[in-house]
Structures are given as structure tokens and as C-alpha cells.
């Protein structure tokens, strides 16, 4: 899955311990999925299938055009920086195709959560707001809403105006500043039911995850994707 014409490996899949009746798609940090194995293991739930798409390798402007795993190009880290609109939209279409594939596999879209960290979280937010598939919710970690000025028009046909959102951000994040997260939460309140938004901050946390955050993520998944009666 990728936001450009470069190929990427197939998503890594962690099957459910029993029959899968729900799925979580986790698009993780821009520079790959390394370092997340321990945190990922801590949020596993028996009836949930976990899908981890791989970002393709591409030149990134912010990285002096050096190639690295990335969902789309990044030109800068300030609120007024130019954004890779075409790359973001193409990457989002690929996440939507992943949702469609899971529906074909027998998991209804309302039993699917999109989630991600940093650039992956940004992509999850954008995809949820622009898809016509009704989702169970979104987990957005240390991220922002890309192409924010295209909303609310871009989400006019979204099926997720009442979706549940867990947004988490460390208050010492030097890469995606905490204010980006809080501003994104305020923007999201104008796009979906504000009663369904939970914004959590973590004291002293830089651009990474922590055990407390992973507990919050697992509780959110358990609440939005409970076992069904015939499991």
C-alpha cells in the first residue's frame, strides 16, 4: 500500500486468536514499524485481526530527498507548510481498498478501526473523513489532520460523522508539536460528533508511545469492537 507509484510489500497480518469478527489497521510511523512489536503485543484482543500496511520507500523532501519509508512526501513541519495533496489522496485510496478487501473477507466495515502513529495517524484521520464506508472508529497517535483546509467540504459525503475517535499526544513532542494535536482535536469537533472524541495527553512523552497510552488504546479498541454473541 502506498501513496505513490512505488511498490510496497504486502501488509503484515497478525491473525485473531479465534475467528476474526473485527479488524484494526495500524499504519505506523513514517520510518517503518520497528520498535513497535512490544507495544503492539500489548493491545492484542482475541477476536480482532491486526493489519499493518508497509509504507513504500520514496524520496522525502524533509529528509533532503533521501529515500525512506513514507506514506506521502513531507515538505515541512510547520502549520503553513505545503502538503503533498496528490500523495495523501493516493495513499488514502489504498487504505480504502484495504477496508474493501476486509469487507470482502467477511468483516463488516463498522467492525474495522483505522489507527496509526504520526504520518500513519494523519492518513487514518483523512481516510476516515473521506470514505463512504462506516467505520468503528479511529486511533490517532501523535499526529495531525492533513489537508485540513479542504474540510468540511472534503468530508461532505463521509459515513463517519458519528464515529468514535481516540486521539493521543505527548506534551513534549519535538517533531509533531503538542499544539498540532490539540488544534487537530478542535478541528475534528467541527467535523464529527464532538461527544465521540477523546483527546488524551501524556506528560513528558516525546514523539513516541508509552505504556499508559497503549492501555488507553486497548481500552478504546475493546469498547468499540466488543465480542459478538456467537463467538
UniProtKB/TrEMBL annotation:
Organism: Xyrichtys novacula (Pearly razorfish)
An individual GO BP term: fatty acid metabolic process
Keyword Cytoplasm: yes
Listed EC numbers: 3.1.2.22
Keywords: Acetylation, Cell membrane, Cytoplasm, Endoplasmic reticulum, Fatty acid metabolism, Hydrolase, Lipid metabolism, Membrane, Nucleus
GO cellular component: endoplasmic reticulum; nuclear membrane; plasma membrane
Tree of life domain: Eukaryota
PANTHER family, sorted: ACYL-PROTEIN THIOESTERASE 1, LYSOPHOSPHOLIPASE-RELATED
Signal peptide location: none
Entry annotated with the keyword Cell membrane: yes
Name of this protein: Acyl-protein thioesterase 1
Function statement: Acts as an acyl-protein thioesterase. Hydrolyzes fatty acids from S-acylated cysteine residues in proteins such as trimeric G alpha proteins or HRAS. Acts as a palmitoyl thioesterase that catalyzes depalmitoylation of proteins, such as ADRB2, KCNMA1 and SQSTM1. Acts as a negative regulator of autophagy by mediating palmitoylation of SQSTM1, decreasing affinity between SQSTM1 and ATG8 proteins and recruitment of ubiquitinated cargo proteins to autophagosomes. Acts as a lysophospholipase and hydrolyzes lysophosphatidylcholine (lyso-PC).
Catalysed transformations (reactions): 1-hexadecanoyl-sn-glycero-3-phosphocholine + H2O = sn-glycerol 3-phosphocholine + hexadecanoate + H(+); S-hexadecanoyl-L-cysteinyl-[protein] + H2O = L-cysteinyl-[protein] + hexadecanoate + H(+); a 1-(9Z-octadecenoyl)-2-acyl-sn-glycero-3-phosphocholine + H2O = a 2-acyl-sn-glycero-3-phosphocholine + (9Z)-octadecenoate + H(+)
Family designation: Belongs to the AB hydrolase superfamily. AB hydrolase 2 family.
Primary localisation category: membrane
